[in-house]
Amino acid sequence: MKDTGWVRVSEDDRAVTIETDRLEAVIPKKNPKQWMTGIEKGSFLDKATGFREVGDGLMVVDWLMEAGSDEAYGDQVIAPDGHGVSQYLWHENETDPARRSYALTCHGSSHRKRVVEGPQLCHRMKPVQPEVIRGTDFVAVKTTYQYEYAAPGRRAGSRWTQVIVFPKGERFFVLMDRIDSVNDSGEMFLRNDTPGCIRHEKGDTFSEVYLSYLSGPGGVRIPSGEFFTPFPPDLKFGYRRDLNRTPERFIRAYHLRDMKTGEDGPWLAGLTLEPSVVYEAWCSQRTGDIIVMIEEIHGRPVKAGESFSAAHIVGYFDGIEDMHRVYDRHRGHTALSADASGWRLVKAELRS
Fold first, then answer.
1. Per the count of CB atoms within 10 A, which of 102, 199, 232, 297 is most buried?
2. 249-263 pLDDT tens trace
3. What is the mean pLDDT of the chain?
4. Residues of the chain with pLDDT > 70: what percent?
């Protein structure tokens, strides 16, 4: 355990727990409450208000993917433990009504995707040993993992790196996801949840969603009632870089609500600091009690040996104006580095 006054770091064989002057968060090593990547479900606490994240965790990481159909080989993409991926995608010739319906609800029908490498890190990743990095005014956690299997004709072994920085005095953390690829691809992307999903029953945990990149430069505020009935990701509230102008900001947030009193709390927001890294994003209601906030980053040509990354800020805000101020102070960055001397956001050139 390490306590420097404003921050306490405790670590055991299951997780790393961070408690700063403003926040609490848990980063799992194994046996997570929900997912293995990002911030653990229910652990992200805003000390100022007492509110917590109400989904399944924050900045959860998924497949390494590319555009295209896997119809020719989907059933061959099998993990060493026997777990396949075909149930997550769909093919034009799919004959199983239940599987087709599930896949269409989850992923829509307008933009074909296929897996390059697996597993789905969020729930198939083996135990990890994150590195804790301490500075005078921050603490950071760095986690790495190599993908274990690949689609036919591709190699396994691309490396995912996630760095999470908790600055002193802030109600947010700064995060980078980076991929170092061992494969070529014409349009490779990493799928994640930014900031995370929303669990609710008829809007009992949140009152509205804010998406800065839809309905003009000011964005759109969507009342919770829009999410009472399931709809696929390509029906409404979706974004595709090839079909939209690059927005000024890329912010996705939900306004927390007290389940007992119905009163509004803070906003929980995810800010992707360089809007042009977003390939596709959606905010859709699945069957059941979950709104998914999937975001896909990069979606550009990649050669073996090259890398790509995205930088985000995730945390609690009192209003949309506060999100914009923080965004504008950090905009344009795509990467993050941290060592004992300090942490730095980095701008990288993006291939068109």
1. 297
2. 999 999 999 999 999
3. 91
4. 87
- Within 13 Å and on the Cβ side, how many CA atoms surround 82? 0
Q: Which is nearest to 20 in space by CA: 1, 46, 42, 50?
A: 46
pLDDT over 90 at 177, yes or no: yes
Sequence-distant (6+) residues with CB within 8 A of 265 are 49, 51, 255, 256, 257, 258
Distance set, CA 266 to CA 48, 57, 138, 180, 257 (Å): 9, 17, 23, 36, 8
Nearest to 221, CA basis, from 233, 232, 212: 212
Which helix (H) or strand (E) is 314 found in, with range?
A: strand 307-317
Place of tokens 């995707």: 113
Per-residue pLDDT band for 298 (boundaries 50, 70, 90) equals: very high
The number of beta carbons lying within 10 Å of the beta carbon of residue 69 is 14
Can you list the positions of beta strands (E) in 15-146? 15-19, 23-28, 45-46, 61-67, 113-118, 131-134, 138-146
Q: What domains does the chain contain, in order, with CATH numbers?
A: 60-65+120-346 (2.70.98)
Q: What's the pLDDT score for residue 1?
A: 47
Q: Are 207 and 264 in contact (CB under 8 A)?
A: yes
Q: List CB contacts of 246: < 8 A, sequence separation 6 or more.
A: 275, 276
User: What is the Cα–Cα distance from 249 to 214, expressed in whole angstroms?
Assistant: 10
Express each pLDDT in 204-222 by its tens digit: 999 999 999 999 889 999 9
Q: Inform me whether the pLDDT recorded for 94 exceeds 60.
A: no
Q: For the chain, first and last CA: distance in Å?
A: 46
DSSP readout, 241-293? Answer: TTTSPPPS-EEEEEEEE-TTT--EEEEEEEEESSGGGEEEEE-EEPSSSEEE-
Count other Cβ atoms within 10 Å, centred on residue 311.
26
Question: What local confidence, expressed as pLDDT, does residue 83 receive?
Answer: 62
